[in-house]
Amino acid sequence: MTSEIKLDQINKFQQNLDNRKDSKVVERAVSHQGILASSEDFTAESKMHPVFSIDLSTGNVADQKQSGRCWMFAALNTMRIRLMNTFKVSDGFELSQNYTNFWDKFEKSNYFLENVLKTADQPLDSRKVSWLMTTPQQDGGQWDMLCALIEKYGIVPKYAMPETFNSEKSAQINKFLNLKLRHDAVALRELVADKASDTKIAETKETMLNEIYRMLVYALGEPTTSFNFEYRDKDNNYHIDKDITPQDFFKKYINLNLEDYVSLINSPTADKPFNKTYTIEMLGNVVNGRQVKHLNLEMSELKKLAIKQLQNGESVWFGSDVGQSSNTKKGIMDTSLYVPDELFDADLSLSKAERLDYGESLMTHAMVITGVDLVDGKPTKWKVENSWGEKVGTKGYFVMSDEWMDQFVYQFVINKAYLTTDQLTAQKQEPTVLNPWDPMGALA
């Protein structure tokens, strides 16, 4: 049954609006100030005072500029803390985000071309091929994807491969790299359709990768193969480690077993029972590298694990939907910060599961939890290190309410040492493979 909007309905709706005594007041406020400013509850701000019972020192906040590399910044920020604390390196030290960015884009290009070949027998209008062609590669990623890069290529200090115009403002390189990849997709699908030999396809793909490598070197710089690690510690002692490779630098100065850290998610949807593991089809970067794998847990369990990790001096990488109920300038994330439902006198409520199922929310941004305020043993708010520079929040740090975490945080990375025996057993399960467009496959 279909029903179009009738003029008498519109007249009725307008009459109902005219009968509201506050309608003109609200209209003037919203039309001039916007929805968020008109619905902001300033009492919520007083609860988000940036003082925490557990507060880790993590140095100066980094700035990803006009790029979508938050997942990379967040992960490298957690790793630099180990180096800074162990070797007494100054607060301004950073690991090179551009180095991992270069290899991520190169590996993602190869990953895309492999998926083109795997789906070459499907029509262009199939959902999988359509999804694949929508964004051949992008800046975003997942924790396991960064681990795959580091395990293969290592890492370097920022000065060994500094930022470029295209790493800080990635729109241009993304545009032309995706154009190149779609061009290559046409050629590979044609070769498969013409029943070309495996040798011919492999040779063609190698030529494509050679061209992609050249594009990336021009845009991001030639990737570092060795460098001198040179610094003064906080006691002003000079140190130099000559001609060290990125792989050896990671082993010696970060000394982190990446296999110890696992991805835990909170997705309370009917299709993902808790205490089960999941992966996402066609999600990754390094072919034959580390698999993206999530263990789904209740949020109450995730919080306990995050607190344990913080209490032991380790920060927590996490993924969330940062744009929800968030004031970037003030650095506040709180579900009571805005009350648009009261402003519009309309029910705008959705459960966390409904937001995921109906496309209202998914993971959009990765950051680092560096503190928590425990009152009577329970968390009330959390300290968050962002990667948007020091001009937002409190010198780049945000405050996240515990209620906001419940609703809009989807992923934690936790050291397996803090998991219970049952959780460890569950994490070892073979993962269920989800569709490529599943919200748990969103890239931060």
From TrEMBL:
Annotated GO biological process: homocysteine catabolic process; proteolysis; response to toxic substance
Does the keyword Protease feature in the UniProt annotation? yes
Family (UniProt)? Belongs to the peptidase C1 family.
> Which keywords does this Swiss-Prot/TrEMBL entry list?
Aminopeptidase, Hydrolase, Protease, Thiol protease
Q: Which residues form the signal peptide?
A: none
What does the record give as the active site?
70, 365, 386
Annotated TM spans: none
Any GO molecular function: cysteine-type aminopeptidase activity
Tell me the protein's name: Aminopeptidase
InterPro entries from the xrefs? Papain-like_cys_pep_sf (IPR038765), Pept_cys_AS (IPR000169), Pept_his_AS (IPR025660), Peptidase_C1B (IPR004134)
GO cellular component terms attached to this protein's record: cytoplasm
Q: Where in the cell is it found?
A: Cytoplasm
The protein's matches in Pfam families, at most eight in alphabetical order, are given as: Peptidase_C1_2
PROSITE patterns to which the protein is assigned, alphabetical: THIOL_PROTEASE_CYS (PS00139), THIOL_PROTEASE_HIS (PS00639)
